[in-house]
Structures are given as C-alpha cells and as structure tokens.
From TrEMBL:
It is an enzyme of class 2 (transferase). The lineage of its organism: Eukaryota, Metazoa, Chordata, Craniata, Vertebrata. Residues 237-491 form the Radical SAM core domain. One of its GO terms (biological process) is regulation of protein metabolic process. The keyword S-adenosyl-L-methionine applies. Residues 95-215 form the MTTase N-terminal domain. The keyword Iron applies. This is Mitochondrial tRNA methylthiotransferase CDK5RAP1.
Length: 599
C-alpha cells in the first residue's frame, strides 16, 4: 500500500505534489525512505551498467570513438558493406543463377539489370534450372493469370529443391519484381515457397539478400524508391542486334484498373546524360535497334540538371487531362528523343509504352522528320466507350482519342498504330463493347494486345467499383475482339503483297532452320528463306553475301496473314541508304497483326 500511495502524486497538481515531497524530504531517516533509498541505489546501479555497456559505435564496423575528426578510409565509405556479414559473404563464389522472366519488356530489362549486379559479384549464369544454385523469377502482377503462373512454378521449383541431393549446394528460390512487391506477406509467410524476395527498386540489394539466404534464413527487401533508376548499372544484354534502354520507372496516372503505381512506385526519370552514354556504347557495339522503355515512357522529365528546370509545364495532347497537377520544368521526351536519334543514323529507335496524353505535336513532328525513328506508335486505348474510359480514369473520351489518331496520321503519313484493350471492365455494357469494336475498325491498328479484365487489390476499381461482368461474358467479348482483329489484320497485311519492306534481321525462325525472321518499321514480323543476297540494291547479283542477324535487308512481300508477312530477300542495305532509295510502301499505317494475352 505504501508504494501505491507514492504513485498517486503523479496524477495530482503541482500544488498537491509539493507538500508531500517536502514531508518526505524532512523524514529522511524514516523507514519508508530507506525503501526509496534502496530503489535509488538499484536505479544508480542500472544507470552505471548502461553507461559502461556497449555503445552504438560497438555495433558499427570500423567506427571510431575518438571525438576528433575521424580519418575517412575506403572501407568507411563503402556503402555496400554490412558489418553483420563476413567480408566475402556477398561474393557469388561462382554460384550459378538462372533467371526466368515473365511479363512485359520492363521485366526483361529488370532481368538484365539484376544479372549485371550479380555478375559483378562473381555469380555465373545458366539456363538450366536443374543445374542452378539460385533460381530467380522476375514476375508480373498485372493480371491474376500471370500471378497464378508464378504460384504454379514456385510449387514446381520447391518440389525440385526437396529432391536435390544433400551433397549438392541447396537451391535458393527468389521472386523479383511486381509480384514480390504486391504479395510479400503471402509469399514469405503463408506459403513459405521461397528464400529471397526483392521488389523492383531493390535489385542492388540482391547480393546481400542472397548471402542471408545462403546462411539459412529468408531475406526480403521490397522498399519502393522515389529516386532509383539504376542509371549507373549497365544491363547485360543477350540480343546482339536489338536492345532496350530504360529511361524512366514508375507511373503516376493511377488508372482505376492498374496495379503498376503500387508495384513500381512513383514516376522518376533517369538523367539524360546516362541514357545518351548507354546508347553511345550500344552504337559502338554495333547494335542496330534501341527501344526506350518506361511504364509511361513519353512522360519522361529529367530535372537532374539546373538548366533543365523552368516554370513551363509539359504539354498534353489536345482534349486530354491528368489526375495530377501538371509538373513544370525538366528536359522532356521530345528533347531526349531528339538527342538519342542523332547518335547513330543507322540505329532504329522505338519507344514503349506511352500514354496517349503525352503526344504533343513536337513529338510527332520529330518522329516524322527523323528517318531512324520508327513510324510506329503504340497508342493504348483500353476501350472505345467514353463511359468506360471515364470509369477507368483514363483522362480522355472516345472523341478526344480519335482526334489524336487523326492528328497523328496527318503529321506522320503511313504511320503504324498499335494498342491495348480490356474486355469486360466494371460496368461495361454490350453497347460499350460494340463501341470498342467500332473503334478498332475505324483506327485500323497494326498490332493489338487484348486482355480480359482482372481486378487487382489496392487499385481504385477494387475499392470503388464492382467487378460485375460475368467471366463468360468477358471471355465472349474478348473472343469477338480477337476475331475482328484477325479479320482486319489479314486484309491490311495482304495489301503489302508485292511491296519491298526494310527488315532488321533478328535470327533464325522458330518454325524452320531454313528461314530467317525480322521486323519491319511497323514492328510486324517478316519471314524469308535463308539465302545469300546482293550487297546493294543496284548490284547485278554476282556480288552476294549471307544474311546474318543484325543486317538490314530489303524483303519483297509475297504473302501475308494476321500475324506476319512472308517474302524473299532482295539485297543488303542500310537504314540511311534505304531512306533515300526505298519508296514508301506503307499503306496509311494499315499493317496489322494481333497478339493475344491474358486469356
């Protein structure tokens, strides 16, 4: 009771507390105070232990307790070292790693970045999962089917891991990318199918994560960054003739169906100087085609240097708006595209994936004027119904989109257009679906990426809308979109029969070792027999040479379907040479093929 009473003054006013304190002070020899003295003694002893115990510097490797100015050494400024790990723990020691990449081109680029980081740490790469010490899945979360593919693969790998002989190095399984960011708890805790988890902004941490995993523990880093662009990491590419260069990461558009802002984070652009340096290196290596990559590639805005900053906001396509306030200043996409295209006139330039809102006339004029910028634009529509577009928070109407299409075709005659479409979005009616079909017929795209809607957690649609279109209706509408695309594609591709197409050769056709394949300016696959051809279009045919990957050749088209063009090679050429010699055989952008995904 005595101790309880002594706690009460804490809840009293200062005036109430003061007399009791004075009384206790006068009774310094009384029995209650002896208890208090013992408590003070124990408190003093505890304080002494804290004062003489380990300090923060005892937990930091190389820290100095000298209060004078410390001497800065290399090991103190090496941010890659971790004091709680052995010196060589992050070295790969020739461990083999196998990457499996799923989803978009950004994931392909992420794979190249992750491999570049691990390669420098001494890891070796293999394509044989059975021989790999580490298997890393670079994942996609855009649709449920994509995630289910990863879940099934993880269970297969876990079974393989358990069957591995104990005499071998235990297999470590990791998930990288969007799925790691979205489903971190389920992956690590509930299913317990993996050892390493790394989000899209954590690839620099992979050596440490793998080191922890090799020690027998799970390791994860899924922190999103407002700055990470991997600008100083040179990706390790596999394709010798066509490369991808990431110029920005993240997305701020917040379309109601899209998970990307939640798995990839906010938009941030890579400094233009590092992009130009990478493209210069690729040109010196003989690369013939570069694709500039970004989740919203044409919203590029570099503010890394003072001269790029101004009060001028970026221009949007007419009739388009954003959900965020326009940001002033920065070096814009048109400026970057201009500088990249000037590096090598014999290097094709493409870019993906853009948003229709970021196509001011200056971008379109530049595409028209530069021979090495492909006259092909990806223009994701998602729907042909203004009602559905509003529910999707796309920032434009059907009418504004068609006005943009007309403007593009006016400025760039013969342009090829491709697009994305979602069937069965929340609240989509049969009339909305018919409007989407009519938009596809009116625009006449060259490629279509078509998907049935798959609701994702965290998105605006998940919280505000209802996924009320039955699965069988989504599937039927998707099949109708695909059927119509194929029909139109066959018609417009057939119009190219008899024309000569400039083709960048990619390699051997998958269906026949006797055929080569490549892509024309409109990004349509062209297949032709492997044979020697003339060195120049004007040669008599006596001076011939083989066709190799990375060569530009003229191919006369002899047949076509919805997926590809077929013909035979006429001659070797170059991009700059063909710009002056080759007639314009594009038919108002009416090349067409269809890609089917997400079914």
């Amino acid at each position: 009771m005595r101790n309880t009473n002594r706690l009460r003054p804490i809840f009293l006013t200062f005036e109430q507390w003061l007399p009791r304190w004075s009384l206790q002070h006068r009774l310094c020899c009384s029995k209650p105070v002896s208890v208090h003295s013992n408590e003070e003694s124990r408190a003093d002893k505890f304080k002494t232990q804290i004062a003489t115990g380990p300090r923060f510097h005892d937990f930091v490797k190389g820290a100095s307790i000298n209060k004078q100015q410390p001497v800065i050494t290399d090991d103190l400024i090496d941010t890659d070292k971790h004091a709680y790990l052995p010196e060589d723990s992050e070295i790969g020691n020739s461990r083999t790693v196998c990457f499996e990449t799923y989803g978009c081109q950004m994931n392909v680029n992420d794979t190249e970045i992750a491999w570049s980081i691990l390669q420098k740490k001494g890891y070796q790469r293999t394509s044989d999962v059975a021989e790999a010490d580490v298997v890393l899945l670079v994942t996609c979360s855009i649709r449920e089917k994509a995630e289910q593919t990863i879940w099934n693969r993880l269970r297969q790998l876990t079974a393989m891991k358990k069957r591995r002989l104990k005499t071998r190095v235990p297999m470590k399984i990791g998930v990288l990318g969007c799925m790691a960011e979205r489903l971190k708890s389920e992956l690590l805790e509930r299913e317990k199918l993996l050892d390493v988890l790394a989000g899209p902004d954590a690839y620099r941490d992979l050596p440490r994560l793998l080191s922890v995993a090799h020690g027998g523990q799970q390791a994860s880093n899924v922190l999103l960054s407002l700055e990470e662009t991997y600008a100083d990491v040179m990706p390790v590419h596999h394709s010798p003739q066509a490369r991808q260069v990431s110029i920005m990461r993240g997305c701020d558009n917040m379309c109601s169906y899209c998970i990307v802002p939640f798995t990839r984070g906010r938009e941030r652009s890579r400094p233009v100087s590092s992009i130009l340096e990478e493209v210069h290196i690729l040109s010196e290596q003989g690369v013939k085609e570069v694709t500039l990559l970004g989740q919203n590639v044409n919203s590029y805005r570099d503010t890394s240097e003072e001269q790029f900053c101004s009060s001028e906001p970026g221009q949007l396509s007419r009739g388009f708006r954003t959900v965020y306030r326009a940001r002033p200043g920065g070096l814009r996409f048109a400026d970057l595209l201009d500088r990249v295209s000037l590096i090598d006139p014999d290097m094709r330039i493409r870019f993906t994936s853009p948003h229709p809102k970021d196509f001011p006339d200056e971008v379109l004029q530049l595409i028209k004027e530069r021979a090495n910028i492909c006259k092909q634009i990806h223009l994701p529509a998602q729907s042909g119904s203004s009602t559905v577009l509003q529910a999707m928070r796309r920032g434009y109407s059907r009418e504004a989109y068609l006005e943009l299409v007309d403007n593009i075709k006016t400025i760039i005659p013969g342009v090829s257009l491709s697009s994305d479409f979602i069937s069965g979005f929340c609240g989509e009616t049969e009339e909305d679906h018919l409007q989407t079909l009519s938009l596809i017929r009116e625009v006449r795209y060259n490629v279509g990426f078509l998907f049935a809607y798959s609701m994702r957690k965290k998105t605006h649609a998940f919280h505000r809308l209802q996924d009320d279109v039955p699965a069988e209706v989504k599937q039927r509408r998707l099949e109708e979109l695909i059927g119509m695309f194929r029909e139109e594609a066959t018609k417009v591709n057939s119009a190219l029969i008899g024309s000569a197409q400039l083709v960048l050769v990619e390699g051997e056709s998958k269906r026949s070792a006797q055929d080569l394949c490549g892509r024309n300016d409109g990004n349509v696959k062209v297949i032709f027999p492997r044979q020697e051809v003339a060195g120049q279009p004007t040669d008599t045919g006596t001076d011939t040479s083989p066709v190799n990957p990375g060569d530009y050749v003229l191919v006369k088209i002899e047949s076509a379907n919805s997926q590809s063009l077929r013909g035979h090679a006429l001659s070797h050429t170059s991009l700059s040479d063909s710009a002056t010699r080759l007639p314009d055989h594009r038919h108002d952008g009416q090349l067409a093929s269809v890609a089917r995904h997400g079914i």
